[in-house]
Amino acid sequence: MSSSHQTISDEHAHIYREYFRALLNKEGILCDENMVAIYGSLKFILCCQWREKNPIGAAEIQTFNHSLSSQHHGGIGVYVTPTGYSQGAIKEAMNSSTKILLCTDKDIIECIKLTEANFKKIHPLNYDDVVIEGLNFERGEIKSIRKITMKQRAFVPY
């Protein structure tokens, strides 16, 4: 590959990343220069791969998964490309040790927002949702609890 072609490809990749940073920030998804985005209570690590043709293969997803598992604990990987994904790449993402979303440039915002909305449905509880009444301790351990109220539902343990 000639160096001028490589320079054009690098420039496209940079423009592609910067486009997504601007798009995400405009949509209220805070994205820094390292392509780490925060939306709601979730952290997303983005890999924006510019290609004019050919889908992303399993090897690229394996490399991304390795990077996520070794450097970004607790984040959700988001791979973005305009050309789509091979069956091998899809299987690799589904079987990965970390959560990886496979998106195109047309659905990245929806993918991130739906993931965060689904996370809220799965993990809806926060400390403001819980009221514990009649908590008694004996020698540093809980002796009894009279009542636990969670979002207008009551649970009486005894």
UniProtKB/TrEMBL annotation:
Question: Pfam family of this protein, just one?
Answer: Mrr_cat
Please state what the protein is called.
7128_t:CDS:1
GO BP, one annotated term: DNA restriction-modification system
Residue stretches making up the Restriction endonuclease type IV Mrr domain: 48-111
Q: Name one GO molecular function term.
A: endonuclease activity
- Highest lineage ranks of the organism? Eukaryota, Fungi, Fungi incertae sedis, Mucoromycota, Glomeromycotina
